[in-house]
Amino acid sequence: MNTTETKLTPFAIDVINGLEKKNKSLPSKYFYDEEGDRLFQQIMNMPEYYLTRCEFEILAEQRKEICDAIGAFNASFNLIEFGAGDGLKTKLLLKYLTDRKADFTYYPVDISLHILDELTADLQDEFPSLQVAPVHDDYFGALRQMGNFNNRRNVTLFLGSNIGNFHYDEAAGFLKQFVSNSRSGDMLLLGVDLQKDPGIISLAYDDPHGITAAFNLNLLRRMNNELGADFDLDKFGHYTYYEPASGEVLSFLISLENQLVYFPDSDQTISFEKNELVHTEISKKYKPEELEELAISQGLKPVSHFLDSKNYFTDTLFSV
Ligand SMILES: C[S@@+](CC[C@H](N)C(=O)[O-])C[C@H]1O[C@@H](n2cnc3c(N)ncnc32)[C@H](O)[C@@H]1O
């Protein structure tokens, strides 16, 4: 790396570090620029992406039970949400809580400033009485801030199977930090996609409309826009597979020919061989007992499981 290294953004540094590895990879948190946010909203609307509909059904039909189980009407609390996105499903809970005058502040956390601004404006319109305190940070930065919000009880939402974007050991590390930044009585509602027919899972990540492919390839466009790189999007493809033994969907970009890509900020050229893969995302699916074991091993206690009618997805409530 040249002397401009100190001026590189965290995005630029993570990209170069990932592309210099023997097995190239890019962190999935960089999918979400404005175009990535728009494409993810299209993914949520696809018939193949069952995750959103299943979790929507859980929150629509069991929100009373969920709000009772979190003790929403007993005392004031902070409602924190990691990776809030457009809040499509969370609004079901927010409506239920605000209609019944629960005393809480909502802290949506997101790495995408674009979606966070949109969500905040949207909530001010839809729920004028709701207190919203947006947090523009990544998960680990927000975890460090959590204990300092105020001394009310924290109830945290981590929905959409976002925890599936961690390998099992990384998820354990995340929960460990969550617990160490929490107090006894705090709660976590974890939305997790469950293992099921592999064909159903595979289609959600490699749809016939090409939307998941466009979402994956947008990472190249983002590097061109923000880092001045010269990726030719026509020279890369989208490749995913589901491995039922580990429960992991793995997504990659694949180089369709031998090629060089230049990054002007760091004055570096990265070479790609024909058929070389760049790992971009993991989406882990859990068995119910595996999920419990993961959470219990980090000091969380299962309180209730809220499942959809097909048993595809669970929103499981844990207490610290
Ligand atoms: C898959 S979307 C899910 C959104 C929402 N939770 C849902 O279930 O519909 C993931 C969201 O988390 C945000 N995100 C992804 N990685 C993140 C990270 N490491 N830290 C903070 N936010 C992140 C993205 O910007 C995006 O809005």
Fourth CATH level, the homologous superfamily of the largest domain = Vaccinia Virus protein VP39
How would the global form be characterised? Answer: globular
* CATH C-level category of the largest domain: Alpha Beta
Number of helices: 11
Task: List the ligand species.
Answer: S-adenosylmethionine
The chain-level mean pLDDT equals 96
CATH fold-level name of the largest domain: Rossmann fold
Radius of gyration: 20 Å
CATH architecture classification name of the largest domain? 3-Layer(aba) Sandwich
Description:
The chain is an alpha/beta fold. It folds into two domains: 3-30 and 212-284, no CATH class; 62-194 and 286-319, Rossmann fold, CATH 3.40.50.150. It has eleven helices and 13 strands. Strand 1, helix 5 and strand 2 (104-110) form a beta-alpha-beta unit. Helix 2 packs antiparallel against helix 10. The radius of gyration is 20 Å and the shape is globular.
Q: How are the elements arranged and paired?
A:
Blueprint: H1 10-19, H2 34-45, H3 50-61, H4 63-69, E1 77-82, H5 90-99, E2 104-110, H6 113-126, E3 131-132, E4 135-136, H7 139-146, E5 153-158, H8 168-180, E6 187-193, H9 198-205, H10 211-227, E7 236-243, E8 248-255, E9 259-263, E10 268-272, E11 277-284, H11 288-297, E12 301-307, E13 313-319
Parallel strand pairs: 1-2, 1-5, 2-3, 2-4, 5-6
Antiparallel strand pairs: 6-13, 7-8, 8-11, 9-10, 12-13
Helix pairs in contact: 2-10
The chain binds S-adenosylmethionine.
Keywords:
2 domains; disordered N terminus; binds S-adenosylmethionine; 3-stranded antiparallel β-sheet; 11 helices; Rossmann fold; 13 strands; 8-stranded mixed β-sheet; 320 residues; alpha/beta
